[in-house]
Amino acid sequence: MRNSLQTASLRQLVILSFFMALIPVAVLLWQSYTALNGVSQYAVAEAESAISSVRRVENMQNMVVDIERAVRQFAVVKTPALAKVAANHLDNYQQLLQQVCNNVQQTELCQLQRQQLQLLQSRFQQLDSKQLEPVILQFRQQQQQLTQTVWSMLEQNLQAQQSFVVESQQQLAWQTVVLVIITLLLVLWASGRIAAPVKKLDIMIRAIGQQHQFPDEKLVGPRELTELGEQLRWLSSRLQQLEALRLILLRHASHELKTPLSSIREGCALLTEQLVGPLNPQQLEVVGLLNGSADRLSLLTEQLLDYNRLLQQAKPEPDWLSPQQLFTDCFADHALSLQQREQVIELDCQLSAIFTDATLFRRILDNLINNAQAYGSQSSPVWVKLYQQEHQLVLDVANNGNPIPTALRHSLFEPFQRGTTPRFDAVQGSGLGLSIVADCARLLGGHADIVDVIYADVCIRVRLPLLEEKLS
């Protein structure tokens, strides 16, 4: 059964689960019909019995009156016809008495009434009116007692019927609760058979997207989901191969470019200084273009190497650091480029010590300062803020310039993605700066966003965990 469920298709599993959930419902409907039918039959039988008993009692009451009248008339006018009428009434009453006594548990009262009836049948012709009076009176009183007994029996039957209905309702209610619980368990089981592999698929997809270790456990479930899991496993393996090839290509290409690039820059420097001979203005212009291209190529190579080292760093090494010292070193390295554009740093550091990885945090600072210097307005300040917000370490680097459209903010943190805003320096961007910032923040357990602030046109905010255990 288990193997058949594992190899079943998703459609078959859904249909099977639907029918399994319907089984308790069908049982509940059948039990409800049976209980209702039983109550109905019992109520009909009791109603018919009650009607018959009431009719017999009423007939007996009427017959007692007829017997009393016929006997009294015979006592006054002793004729054979009256005697025959009285005898017929007594015989009919005897039959009704027998039927009523068969349903009544008061055997003693029935026995007394039979004796009184036999007395009337045997002696009503010999007794005169005075002698007959006490016999008839007792006969009438016993009939009244018998009528009262029948009514009491009907009330007891009605109470028993009510108790039977209540008991049937309680039993049906308990059966309903049990069957509903069984139905819920079957539904949960069936949904689990579908939700469990879907959850594993979600884990697999997240592992592929976040470049985590792909789960080794084979997905077990419907055939379509199992096949999809194997396709995701193949896709993960293929992406790992492509990632390995990409890293190898970046590493080899970067390193192989550095040697000829160094030779080109040295040659351009010799030509610029005219150590190998004088150059005319046109030649100097060409050499200037070569120098700019060599510098541009050198910058791209350094960024590729830096990005490659960042991808290979799997785990940060946090330690307690002085943020003031980190800022001082970073600003000193970027002092020349900031002076060329007449930009100043306005620092607001509210923390005396931070627990983070020095290399990753410095890379974040370098790329954010370089981004603010390149895209910021001429003679405009660059705001740098470091503060604590709730349980996070927040770094804001803001500048004035062209605001970044909301639709492009998320994509700018992807590798080799550049915005539509032009740089104000002489270097053409490669689209790796903000990607390096985002990857460094991710390695530190945080994330980077572009936010809106009132004091600047553009602000890049990096949120990092504050506690040591979140960095480990």
TrEMBL record:
- The UniProt record lists the Histidine kinase domain at 252-468
| MF (Gene Ontology) | ATP binding; phosphorelay response regulator activity; phosphorelay sensor kinase activity; protein kinase activator activity
Q: Does the keyword Transmembrane apply?
A: yes
Name the enzyme group at the top EC level.
Answer: transferase
Read off the InterPro entries from this record.
Answer: BphY/WalK/GraS-like, HATPase_C_sf, HATPase_dom, His_kinase_dom, HisK_dim/P_dom, HisK_dim/P_sf, Sig_transdc_His_kin-like_C
GO biological process assignments = osmosensory signaling via phosphorelay pathway
The UniProt entry, under SMART domains, shows: HATPase_c (SM00387), HisKA (SM00388)
Q: Which residues are listed as membrane-spanning?
A: 12-33, 172-196
Q: Which reaction does it catalyse?
A: ATP + protein L-histidine = ADP + protein N-phospho-L-histidine
Q: What is its EC number?
A: 2.7.13.3
The UniProt record lists the keyword RNA-binding: no
Arranged from A to Z, the UniProt key words for this protein are: ATP-binding, Kinase, Membrane, Nucleotide-binding, Phosphoprotein, Transferase, Transmembrane, Transmembrane helix, Two-component regulatory system
Matching entries from PANTHER family are given as:
SENSOR HISTIDINE KINASE GLRK (PTHR42878:SF7), TWO-COMPONENT HISTIDINE KINASE (PTHR42878)
- What is the protein name stated in its UniProt record? histidine kinase
**Where does this protein come from, organism-wise?**
Rheinheimera salexigens
